[in-house]
User: Fold this.
Amino acid sequence: MKHKLGLVLAVAALLMLPLMPRLARAQMHGGDPKSCGMMSSGGMGMGRGGMMGGGMSPLPIFLRAADLTPAQQDQVNKILLDNRTATQGQFEQMHSAREAIAAKLFSTGPVTANDLSAQTQQIAQAQQQMLQNELNMALQVRAVLTPAQLKKVSQLHAKFESLHKQMRALMGPPPGDGPPPPDAPPPPPG
Assistant:
């Protein structure tokens, strides 16, 4: 009985994870849904879910490093707005499928993996479509940049990667991230 309760709670927690970035952004912006999407005054926000994976997008940081002209900012904003409708539809598909899974999991009747397979397939398909849309959007945005701007963005990306490697060397891999690389220092005692 305790095992089943623990399993249900774990599944419920997993179902809530995709909502956390959206809730955090809404709270940071006083609940204003408009401020959770495109940033104003020339900034480049990704809106609902962000680029590549449901979190905050690194795209605005990289575009800031590119130092876009006003005309380029307009082009990028148009690309983001044009792609927003498709992405929003995919988020809605995922949300509906997750709600259906939750309804089945929290019902009083028996539930098997087969009972959830249609919804898990819907989620997987929507995630795949979102990833493809985000990649297409990134390629469209990249095409707006000049070679000099691409070089600036590339240099910033290299710095981010270097910082990431330094952080992993200091802190070790996240729990459950597989075995540490052979050259990684031992984890701190704890």
